[in-house]
Design goal:
By secondary structure, this protein is α+β, with helices and mostly antiparallel strands. The chain has a single domain, classed as endopeptidase fold (from Nostoc punctiforme), CATH 3.90.1720. The chain has four helices and nine strands. Strands 1, 4, 5, 6, 7, 8 and 9 form a seven-stranded antiparallel β-sheet that branches. Strands 2-3 form a two-stranded antiparallel sheet. Helix 1 packs antiparallel against helix 2. The radius of gyration is 15 Å and the shape is globular. The N and C termini lie close together (5 Å). The relative contact order is 0.23.
């Protein structure tokens, strides 16, 4: 097993490049429930370059009919990143004062349902007084202030790296 470093710069550059566009190598899920997690998965993949091809519980995309639930579902991406012990990216829950570029924030509604995935693309200021900016699909945005979103709670996930077999 080989441990890989997450290239945050590549992930952020990908996010900024495709914020208002669609990479034709991937299906656009905008009219199928939203493209936000598909987009965030693309960004993570740009920064890590390794997928996990475990059927059902992995994290991969080959086509619309050959992909894991974690690739395009906020709930399943969260579960995969926090529980993955195999190939591909993995992370940990953190507080916002520990957030870094390329980390993921997922919004949760009042019913406890995770409904939106964002990637951190800019941070201004000192840790105690900083402003976080995110990029996302489904209501496409580039470097939007995280504080401008309405949500009941959130999960911030720090991408630690990836494993490759």
């Amino acid at each position: 097993m080989k441990f890989l470093t997450y290239n945050r710069e590549k992930a952020v550059n990908y996010a900024v490049k495709w914020a208002y566009g669609r990479n034709l190598a991937y299906v656009d899920f905008e009219n199928m429930g939203g493209d936000c997690t598909n987009f965030v998965s693309q960004c993570i993949y740009a920064g890590i370059g390794v997928m996990n091809y475990t059927k059902t519980f992995g994290w991969y995309y080959n086509s619309i009919n050959d992909r894991s639930p974690a690739w395009s579902s906020a709930k399943y991406l969260n579960k995969f990143l926090l529980e993955n012990k195999g190939a591909g990216p993995y992370g940990e829950l953190i507080s916002l004062n520990k957030i870094m570029l390329g980390d993921i924030i997922q919004l949760v509604n009042a019913n406890g349902e995770m409904y939106h995935s964002l990637i951190v693309t800019k941070i201004y200021g000192e840790p105690s007084l900083f402003t976080i900016f995110v990029t996302a699909h489904s209501f496409d945005s580039k470097n939007r202030a995280f504080s401008s979103y309405n949500f009941a709670s959130y999960n911030a996930i720090h991408i630690l790296g990836a494993r490759q077999w």
